[in-house]
């Protein structure tokens, strides 16, 4: 039962992490203009992986897509690739998780389901490392530009925090599946590996009790030969 609970919890973490990473990837607020540079800020600029947007105090927002791929900064292109890879790994990891869960009727035998569950856990962990690297790199670049007197000042956007949260949920889901497989192997070893040892000890203990009882009563222990069953 504990094995199934860990897998269900890991699947929930993985699906929620997939949604958080997808929302962060499509978000337009990876970085936003710092409002600490002036007392009154009537307009601000916020950028994402795919668009540049500008808004004002009246509520109007104008967005423009990145027109070219080759003139973008290298870190934006790498972040795009990592976030897309995380979404793909999380999607296929969720499918593998459904097939490898102990509470589902798909996936084959117990051994094959354990292998599929372990594969799902590894895919979840890899899917969590990708947005962790992408968001951390993007945040590091924002911090470098913030303390550069020539570059415009930006703050960390909400998409970065959503990406970090999704990465943490991914990793927790992957660890839950890996722990469930390890616990399942440990239970199988205990069940099939310790029973012969316990049974031999039980036999020896029962034989010793019989010998002691025969000595105390002064009677010989019972012996049966093949003619006694005829």
Major β-sheet profile? 5 strands, antiparallel
Q: List SSEs in N-to-C order.
A: HEEEEHHEHH
Helix-residue proportion? 55-70%
What is the global morphology?
A: elongated
Q: What does the average pLDDT come to?
A: 79
**β-strand number:** 5
Q: What fraction of residues sit in β-strands? A: 5-15%
Alpha-beta content class: alpha+beta
Trace the largest sheet across and list its strands. 4-3-2-1-5
Helix count, DSSP H or I runs of 4 or more residues? 5
> How large, in whole angstroms, is the Cα Rg?
31 Å
Low-confidence stretches: 192-206, 226-230
Walkthrough of the structure:
The chain is of the alpha+beta class and 230 residues long. It has 5 helices and 5 strands. It has helices spanning 2-26, 74-100, 110-146, 158-193, 195-217, and strands spanning 31-33, 43-47, 51-56, 61-65, 154-156. It has a 5-stranded antiparallel beta sheet. The longest helix is centred in the middle third of the chain and has 37 residues, at 110-146. It starts with a helix and ends in a 13-residue tail after the last helix. The model is unreliable at 192-206 and 226-230 (pLDDT under 50).
